[in-house]
Amino acid sequence: MDQCSYQIYGIILSFFLILFLADVCQAQQEKVEYGLETSAYLGLSEALPFWLYANTDGRVDASSSNFINRFYSTYSVSNSSEELHFRSGFNMNGRISQQTALFFTQLFGELRYKGVALKGGRYYDPIGLNDRELSMGSMMVSRNATPVPKIRLGTAGFAHIPGTRERLELDVMMSHGWFTDDRHIDGPYLHQKYFYLKYNHPRFDLTAGAIHNVMWGGTHPRFGELPSSFSDFLRVVSGKAAIGNNAPANDTANVIGNSVGAYDFKAGINFTHFRLKVYRLFYLEDKVALRFRSPWDGIWGAGIEFDDQEGIVTELLWEHMNTKRQNSWIGDPPGRSGYYHNGVYRSGWSYEGRVLGNPLLLIGPNEHFEGRGEISNNMIVAHHIGLQGKPSNRLSYKAFFTYSRNYGTVIMQGEEPPYTPLEELRIDQYSVLLSGSYKLIPEHRISAIAAVAADIGELYSENRWGMQVGLKLDFGN
């Protein structure tokens, strides 16, 4: 039995172990929800516009028009005191496109007890304090790629710290996952953890935390099996370098594996009829970055949420991303680090052909830029505006406008002086989206969904125009 089979059987075993533990719930409250969505994604050019396929959990094939049927369901049950809670679910997709496929984007089981949650399988798990609905995507883990299967233990969201009069809350998590796709290194693991502390005041709240993701282990085509023992796992958790003859030079000189991390901060202020929020993620690629060597790289966000959720505009968000400096000091040539790229793990911070983090960092070939490994464009300055609203009780909408300046990768500047100035590499791009949902038959929860999107600029081979049309049916008790 190969390593991938062991990983899959481990996921299935964990899933059914959680199902078995759920029997102790002695059900008092049960809830079942399920639904069906069918959509056609149509492009007027060879490929779809960016916002029709980005941040769609890997469902939509970017290379052609799509016809997708999606069936999803969740089941939850709690005991009488609601201290013990079990939930499971799946999301199955059938896609007809240039890359026709039948696949799950979710298949999981979760057990919660007094604010602690154990979850196993494949499930949506974006990481970061960025806005979930209107963001261009977290630089840690967004909803751009199909979720990596994993086992996760942590708090069930923010939990009150005893003795603080509910002023302090804690959110912590650690998980272990398996990369099961076809990639440069076969069968690496995924280690993730984060720690957040939140202070609550009637008028405002402050949140600060740190995030650590590591791609490690697996079988390298030249080095063979990379460090993957339990002692190596402990070194991954603690952020230490590898030891042993089978470790690549990068792992022994720096830390084991390919690390993607961040310092993450957020503040919110409550007013009578709305709430303001700002957040800042400082991106960290390696140990040098821990000392704020490149503090300008990361994401800024600012938004306003209105208490009235049935208005023309219910939320407005602005985000700014800068990945141009890449761990270099002022005065040094930028881009020396190579975000989402790693010299050993050449498939980069990706899964099943999609970037795990912010989708503006491109994976795959680009006619303008020479890539590092699979990553072809990771030096970017972007501005993004997202807004949503509910003009009537039947109609809701969402709109995106994204502008980016793209500079490729460090290779485009040359390996040694004189370096090519970034302005000579710059390519501007605009991507827009307008999507909406209309309740056709509210009493039966049947809705029509539609979207139009466009890409204008030189980043792709041509300007792109496209649309989505579909129906969505939600059921359950």
From TrEMBL:
Pfam families: Caps_assemb_Wzi
Protein name per the record: Capsule assembly Wzi family protein
